[in-house]
Amino acid sequence: MASATFTTELLMEPTMTPPVVPEIIPAEALRIGTSTTRRFVGRDHGAGISYFFVDNEPGQGPDLHWHPYSETWVVIEGTARITIGDQLLTAGAGDTATVQAGVWHGFKNAGTGRLRVLCIHASDVIIQTWAE
Question: Which of 4, 13, 23, 28 lies 20 to 30 Å from 34, alpha-carbon distance?
Answer without folding.
Answer: 23
